[in-house]
Amino acid sequence: MAIHDDRPAGDPLAELKTANDQRILLLVMDGLGGLPREPGGPTELEAARTPNLDALAAGAECGLHVPIDYGIAPGSAPGHLALFGYDPLQYPIGRGIVAALGIGHPIRGGDVAARLNFATRDDTGLITDRRAGRIPTELCTRLAALLDGIELPGVEVAVRPVRDYRAVVVLHGAGLSDRVSDTDPARTGVAALPPRALAPEAEHTAQVAAAFVVRARELLADEAPANEVLLRGFAQLPRIPSLTDRFGLSPVALAVYPDYKGVSRLVGMEVVEGLADLDAQSRALAAAWPGHDYFFVHHKYTDSAGEDGDFDAKVAEVEKVDRALPGLLAGEPDVVIVTGDHSTPSVARSHTAHPVPFLVHGAAVRPDAVRQFGERECAAGAWGVVPGRALMAIALGHAGKVARFGA
C-alpha cells in the first residue's frame, strides 16, 4: 500500500476542496493520440467511426493536453499521474513499483522493483522482439516461476507474472537503490543494455541486476520465443498524497491491466478486481456508483495496437470504446472526461510527445465548435493546449468541488 503524505503546501485545489455528491468519470483510451499514416490523411481517432464520442464532443469543451512537458514522450505511469491531477515531474514514479502494486505484491521499505519484459534474442545476442511475440500470460506465469528461483548473495529475489509478456522482479535486501538504468534498449537489432548505476549508492544494485540478467539468460536458453529479459523502471515506493487527501474524492479504478491498478493504488484509489473487458467494466461501474464520486475507467488496447504499428487495429479499438460509451454513461455522471494518457501513433510504434485530445462534458460547460472528437478539431476547441494535470482541476471546477478563492 502506498504511503500518503499530508497535502502539499501551497496546493490551491487541496486547500479549496469542497465535498458534494457530483460524480466525475474519467475514461482513458491508452495511447489515444495518433498521426496520419499518409500525408494529409486522418489519424486513427479521426478515421474511426465514433458517433457517440462525436455527440458527446458536440456538447463539450475540448482541447489538447501535454502530459509531462513540451517535447517529452510520457511513460504510462506519469501520463496517468498527470490525469489524476499531479505534476509527474514533482512526483516521479518508476514502472517497477506500479507493476508490483498492480498485482498486489507486498513492497517493503527499501525494496527495489523493476518491470520485466520477456523478449527474443538471436544467436548473436541481438534483440529481435522486445515483447517475445506478446506471449500468453500462461507462458509468462511459467517462466516467471522459473526465474523466481534465482538466488543472489544477500538479496531476496521475487519474480511474479503480470500479464502477457510482462512480469515484475522485486529485490529485497540491505543497501539497495533504484538509481539504476534500464536494460531495455527500446529498439530491436541491438543487444540489451547492461544495468548501470546512476549514482554511487546504486553500484551494488546494478551489480545485483546484472547478475540476475546473466542467470535469467541461462535459465531461458532453451525457451522460444522468450529467451531474454529486459528490465526497466527500477523504482522504490514513492510518497504521494492521495486523491482523498488532496481533493476530498472517494475514487475507484476500473482497469483490466495490472499496471493501471498499480498507479491507481499509488494515489489511494479503491481498485475493482476481476475485470476482463469493457462490458465487465460497465457492469462494475454501475455497481460502484453508490459510495464513490470519482471513477477511472481504462482501456489498454488502443495503446497496444499503436505499439504494434497496426493503424486499423487501433481504429477498431477506438470504435469498440465508442460502442461501449452509452453503457458507461448510463449512470449519468455529472462530469465526463474522455482522453488518453499519451499519444501512441501506429506509424511511430511508440509513445510520442504529441498532445492528446480531450473532451470535458457536463452541465456547467460552455460547448465549443468541436463536432468530431479528433486531434485537429480538438486543437481548435475551447481549452486549446493545457498541461495534462489541468484536466483534474477543470473537472473539479465543473463539478463544483472547488470553493471560491479569496473574498
How would you describe this structure to a colleague?
- The structure is a single chain.
- The protein has 407 residues and is of the alpha/beta class.
- Helices cover 31% and strands 19% of the residues.
- The chain has 14 helices and 13 strands.
- The longest helix is centred in the middle third of the chain and has 18 residues, at 203-220.
Q: How would you concisely characterize the structure shown here?
A:
By secondary structure, the protein is an alpha/beta fold.
Rounded radius of gyration (Å): 21 Å
Structural class: alpha/beta
If helices are DSSP runs of H or I spanning 4 or more residues, what is the number of helices?
A: 14
**Fraction of helical residues:** 25-40%
The order of strands across the largest sheet is 9-8-10-1-11-12-2-13
| Beta-strand content | 15-25%
Tell me which oligomeric state these chains represent. single chain
The helix-strand sequence is: HEHHEHHEEHEEHEHEHEHEHHEEHEH
The major pleated sheet works out as: 8 strands, mixed
Query: pLDDT below 50 for ≥5 consecutive residues: which ranges?
Result: 1-8
- Arithmetic mean of pLDDT: 94
Give the beta-strand count: 13
Distance between the termini: 39 Å
Broad shape: globular
